Structures are given as structure tokens and as C-alpha cells.
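Private note to self, pasted from the team thread so I don't lose it. C-alpha cells:
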């Protein structure tokens, strides 16, 4: 790699971080812009994403891991449904269980690598509740 290419890499990373910061710098909605939900009298402004160049990678990983965890939980529920229905052989059940446990362990490892907990992945959707169902 040339010296010019090596100096280009940090500058490009700074540009990406600045662009992400601008993209995520959203202000809360003004109360006059959003009416109260049906059946409710008061309304507080929506919470928005706020990010800075130092945490962009961690925030992006949090979003990606949240989506992966949501899919993992959906797959786990589907697998349990198939087991309850008797659609799988004993060997398939064992393989599926081992795969889901391995995926959960890998998710925990990735969370630890980025300083996150599994609870950090459960986004609060305001009046809708949380994204992920409660842990059993």
C-alpha cells in the first residue's frame, strides 16, 4: 500500500463519521408539529437519534445486532412451534437447538466486544412498548 493510500484512509473515515453525525443529528419534533395520539391528552416530543463520530461504529453495531437478535428470537419461536407440531426428527431438533444456542452465544460475544448488553438491544418504541419480547 502506498503512503498516499494510507493517508487517504483516515481522512475518508473522518468524512464518513462526519456524514453519519450530520445524518443522525435530528432534533426532537416540536409539539405543534405532532398532535396528541388518539385518546390521549398530553404528548411529549419524540426522542431522536443523536450520534457523534466517536460512537458511530458502536451505534451501527447496536442497530445491526438488534435486528439480528430480533430475527434470532423469531427463528427460535418458529423452531419451538415446529417441535411442538412434531414436524422435525430427533436429529433435526438436536441440530436446530445446537445452532440456536451457538447463535445466542455468538450474539453475547459480539455484544461484549462492542460494550453492549443484550438489554441494550431492546429498543424502546414509546407507546408501542419494546421491540423485543421480554426474556423468558
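Design output:
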Amino acid at each position: 500500500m502506498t503512503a498516499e493510500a494510507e493517508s487517504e484512509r483516515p481522512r475518508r473515515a473522518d468524512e464518513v463519521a462526519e456524514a453519519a453525525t450530520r445524518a443522525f443529528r435530528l432534533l426532537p419534533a416540536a409539539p405543534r408539529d405532532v398532535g396528541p395520539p388518539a385518546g390521549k391528552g398530553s404528548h411529549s416530543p419524540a426522542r431522536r437519534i443523536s450520534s457523534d463520530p466517536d460512537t458511530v461504529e458502536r451505534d451501527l453495531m447496536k442497530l445491526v445486532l438488534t435486528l439480528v437478535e430480533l430475527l434470532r428470537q423469531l427463528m427460535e419461536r418458529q423452531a419451538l412451534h415446529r417441535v411442538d407440531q412434531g414436524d422435525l426428527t430427533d436429529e433435526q431438533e438436536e441440530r436446530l437447538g445446537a445452532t440456536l444456542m451457538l447463535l445466542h452465544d455468538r450474539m453475547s460475544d459480539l455484544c461484549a466486544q462492542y460494550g453492549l448488553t443484550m438489554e441494550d438491544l431492546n429498543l424502546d418504541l414509546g407507546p408501542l412498548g419494546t421491540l423485543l419480547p421480554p426474556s423468558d
